[in-house]
Amino acid sequence: MLMLVQRRTAIRTLKGWATSVLLDAGAIRECEEHGWMIDRADPQAHDRAFDVARREPPPGISPSWQPL
Question: Radius of gyration over alpha carbons of the chain, in Å?
Answer without folding.
Answer: 15
